[in-house]
Amino acid sequence: MTVNGRVNANHHHRDIDHSAVERAAADLLRALGADVNAEALDETPRRVADAYAELLTPQPFRATTFPNEDGYDELIVAQAIPFHSLCMHHLLPFHGVAHVGYLPGERIIGLSKLGRVVEYFSRDLQIQERLTTQVAGWLEQELEPKGVGVVLEAEHLCMSLRGVQKLGAKTVTSALRGVVRDDARTRQEFLALTTRGSHDQ
Ligand SMILES: [Zn+2]
């Protein structure tokens, strides 16, 4: 998945055919009974294509890691990282916050990179469970930490707008690995930190 610490965009590289997306968006508008010749809709197909291209194009980043020289042996947690992604079942956004933590082994990584990892995997046709496990898997692979914890809380517009869920209701997913999963005290500590983070919202 990575080459020399750089996230390999080919991991889920897609070719976006911008003009085909524009034509499809115009078709969709027509199928929805819209007057595509109306001036107000003139630019809509292009805007739709731009928006999807942006939502589905991950930004590669350099995942610089550092040796854990001081032997830091406590959880490192980035709380309430805002994110948004695109539900692959409805092509509607889901958005919320991610809590990402790990118990370091030999390597540590800059805190801001934890947010970049979430953003990287968010820019895809996603389901929340897969996004959660991808972030956890990436950290495991890159850092070989003693444990990893990822909790995502998100509102899915495909659920709240259709009344399946109340507006603002959150879906929570988690991926716990290593000692964060297996050691009761570490797991509780991680989950307490993520709960506190969401109360600060
Ligand atoms: Zn959906």
What's the quick description here?
The protein is α+β, with helices and mostly antiparallel strands and 201 residues long. It has seven helices and nine strands; from the N terminus they run E-E-H-H-E-E-E-E-H-E-H-E-H-E-H-H.
Shape: elongated
Please give the radius of gyration in angstroms: 19 Å
Please report which band the strand proportion falls in: under 5%, 5-15%, 15-25%, 25-35%, 35-45% or over 45%.
Answer: 25-35%
Helical content band: 25-40%
| Terminal-residue CA separation | 33 Å
Instruction: Show unreliable segments.
Output: 1-6, 197-201
Give a count of the beta strands, DSSP E runs of length 2 or more. Answer: 9
What ligands does this structure carry? zinc ion
* Class by SSE composition: alpha+beta
What order do the helices and strands follow?
EEHHEEEEHEHEHEHH
Number of helices: 7
